[in-house]
Amino acid sequence: MIIPKTLPDVGDLVIIKITKIMPHGAYCKLTEYNIDSYLPISEVSSGWIKNIHEFIKEGQQDVAKVIFVDKEKNSVDISLKKATTKDKKDKINEFGLEKRAEAIFNKSIDLSKQQNHKQEILAEVAKKFKTYNELVNLAFEGSDPLSTTNYKEFRTAFYDFVKKTIKPKVYSVAYNVDLMSTDVKTGGINQIKSTLKAIETTGINVLYVGAPRYRFISTDSSYPKAEEKIKKAQQILERTKKISFSMKGIKSAQT
Questions:
Q1: Is 213 in a helix, a strand, or coil?
Q2: Contacts of 199 by beta carbon, 8 Å cutoff, 6+ apart
Q3: Which is nearest to 125 in space by CA: 99, 107, 100, 151?
Q4: What's the pLDDT tens digit per position in 47-67?
Q5: CATH match for 13-83 among 3.20.20.70, 2.40.30.110, 1.10.10.10, 2.40.50.140
Q6: Are 21 and 56 within 8 A, CB to CB?
Q7: What is the CA radius of gyration of the chain?
Q8: Is the pLDDT of residue 187 over 70?
Q9: Which among 61, 68, 10 is positioned nearest to 38, based on CA atoms?
Q10: What is the predicted pLDDT for the residue at 37?
């Protein structure tokens, strides 16, 4: 967060580092808040725990869910067992993206030579955005989230650095396609060739694997967009007379 909260809220996912293990629980540092929290033994894992050291280690880093907050005492209790595998994966990804975005922001401050105005710029940005990642994503998508800033040098440096640092993700899907002509007189070779050329105009890369098999590879900025190109190719095949076909997805990838 651009302006971090003093304490997390109940239900929040937090990055933790286990610092001290006791017989009935463990003390953990909350990385994002720089405060300690307590992990009761009953919240380490489901089921009965005979030896807590078999489940957690000092120095271990993990993701936990906040189950209790006492704002007056600055006290926080957490649970490992209530954080699902998906929760942990999403939180680690979110944390990594936020740290990267914060680094981009700080580097832009340096590049624009606005170190003396960093706090003013932070306060200005925090009025509109809760996280650095939100700010960076909007800039990457081509919008102008800093259009009203009073610090033009920072704005220019920030946009330039975002463009240099973040590369667009490319998603690809591939299908094996068996094509056969039902035209017994001509064999339909020319028709297949013209059909494949029409399919290539949709943005699909067509590779010849070996008669009667071809491979259709579609790439775009998201899986749904890549799949949409495949659907258009399928529609072309369905409209083409005297051609029978079958399609089977074989892989998808993100780069």
A1: strand
A2: 206, 216, 233, 236, 237
A3: 151
A4: 899 999 999 999 999 999 999
A5: 2.40.50.140
A6: yes
A7: 27
A8: no
A9: 68
A10: 98
Tokens of 156: 């220019």
Give the predicted TM-score (pTM) of the model: 0.70
Per-residue pLDDT of 110-151, as tens digits, reads 999 999 999 999 999 999 999 999 999 999 988 899 999 999
If you ran DSSP here, which 8-state letter would residue 191 be given? H
The CATH class given to the 171-254 domain equals: alpha beta
Q: What does 69-134 look like in DSSP terms, one character per residue?
A: EETTTTEEEEESTTS-HHHHHHHHHHHHHHHHHHHHHHHHHHHTT-GGGHHHHHHHHHTT-S-HHH
- Residue ranges of domains in the chain: 13-83, 87-165, 171-254
